[in-house]
Amino acid sequence: MTTSVVISSFNGQKHLAKNLPAVMALGADEVVIVDDASTDDTVQFLTAKYPAVKLVRHSRNQRFPITVNDGFAAASGDIVFLLNQDVNPQPDLIKKTLPHFSNPRVFAVTFNEEGRSWADGGWVKGFLEFKNGRRDNRIHQSLWASGGSAAFRKAIWDQLGGFDPIFTPGYFEDLDLGLRAARAGYKILWVPACRVTHTPETSFNKAFSPRHLQYFKDRNYLLAMWKNMPPGLWPVHLTTLFGRSLRHPGFVIPTAWALWKKLAS
């Protein structure tokens, strides 16, 4: 199996300077970095220091889901390792990951980050409830694979259409993809031996106010559920949604926004 690494980058020079040496040392067949119209010196840094990197450049900021999709479109590997710019992989990441793709029904392997584990959950009163599963030394099936530290079988990614741009600027696009993969009969595995170090520093926090950011999260959470909800759960979902909006009036705004996005898509 051939391998690609895809990194979505925005104003990420300092992160790439720290993490790219470890990424390049993985020995993937190619490394693809999509620069999402950075305003720092990311492009100049990559051109000068890492000419072997396949660099895709956006002329305007497209945000995370579209940027990742463009990276996958440029990637040629059978297995694509999707890493955030602030993720540092362990040297044996590819070696530990690839054997799990011997099962053709495995779509993705999500990596072991400090403080996170596999995504456990299910439908409760018409809402998809989830949490970090119990951390142990066993492989678990996960509801989704992290959009910032996971490996994906590209053929299935292409079949499913990748991340849905409706989730732009980001959040829950990976949950949606995981739910779609499960409906299609594919598996997502959390493998504790596949380790990365992730020190999150999201550009969202600099671009949006905390309230606006929460609206995005709530809107996209609803969109992910509405896209993937079993038909029989709609009555109880609407009842629960109405009660939540009464208890938390601020939830009305992302609900209306999600409805508008759904109708417009």
From TrEMBL:
Q: Which UniProt keywords apply?
A: Glycosyltransferase, Transferase
Q: Which InterPro entries match?
A: Nucleotide-diphossugar_trans
Q: Which domain of life is it from?
A: Bacteria
* Any one GO molecular-function label of the UniProt entry: glycosyltransferase activity
Q: Does the keyword RNA-binding apply?
A: no
Please name one Pfam family that this protein belongs to. Glyco_tranf_2_3
In the UniProt record, the signal sequence range is none
Q: Which family does it belong to?
A: Belongs to the glycosyltransferase 2 family.
What PANTHER family does the database record attribute to this sequence? GALACTOFURANOSYLTRANSFERASE GLFT2, RHAMNOSYLTRANSFERASE WBBL
Q: What is this protein called?
A: Glycosyl transferase, family 2
Q: Which source organism?
A: Candidatus Amesbacteria bacterium GW2011_GWC2_45_19
